[in-house]
Amino acid sequence: MAEEKDEKKIIIDEDWKQQAQKEKEVLAAAEEAEKKASEQKQRRPLPKGDFQGLVSMLFTQTLFSLGFIQVKGEEKREPDLALAKYNIDMLDMLEEKTKGNLTDDEKQVLTNTLNELRMAYVKAAEAVESNSRPGKES
Predict the structure, then answer these.
(1) pTM of the model
(2) Which residues of the chain have pLDDT under 50?
(3) pLDDT confidence of residue 74
(4) 122 in Cβ contact with 82 (< 8 Å)
(5) What is the pLDDT, as a whole number, of residue 100?
(6) What φ, ψ does residue 70 adopt, rounded to 5°?
(7) Do 75 and 31 share a structural domain?
(8) Total domain count for the chain?
């Protein structure tokens, strides 16, 4: 008879462990759902997708790759001239493919952006070259 009681305790103990695990999972899921809801509330609505937004996105990526924009808290990185050139080439291709199909404002934004990025690229390339010259003190 004593053996039967021990067996029942083991079953009850295992049931309790399973119930506690289920409760933990439910609480974790509720916390995760709250966290996601909180993050979604904090996010501003995204702007309408348009030509100027695309140009702005490529502009920002290029400035980042040139090292003119840094991520807060990260170490300063060396410019990635190849990636910057790629993004500039993408904007140049966009200018070529959209000739005659842009509004005056869109054309002006694209032209100004390309001019600024080309000058920034030259500045970054000169800085990289001057930092890699022999005899330069660090």
Answers:
(1) 0.64
(2) 138
(3) 84
(4) no
(5) 95
(6) -120, 150
(7) no
(8) 2
Q: How large is the greatest C-alpha to C-alpha distance in the chain, in angstroms?
A: 94
Residues 2 and 60 in one domain: no
Q: How far is CA 72 from the centre of its chain?
A: 13
User: Residues with Cβ < 8 Å from 111, sequence gap 6 or more?
Assistant: 95
Dihedral sign of CA atoms 20, 22, 28, 33 in order = negative
Please give the pLDDT value at position 138.
Answer: 46
Range of the domain at 85: 51-132
| pLDDT per residue as tens digits for the range 46-79 | 888 999 999 999 999 999 999 998 888 888 888 9
137 in a structural domain: no
Compute the distance between CA of residue 63 and CA of residue 41 in angstroms, rounded to an integer: 29
**CA–CA distance, 126 with 110 (Å, rounded to integer):** 24
2-33 exposure pattern, b = at least 16 Cβ within 10 A, e = fewer? eeeeeeeeeeeeeeeeeeeeeeeeeeeeeeee
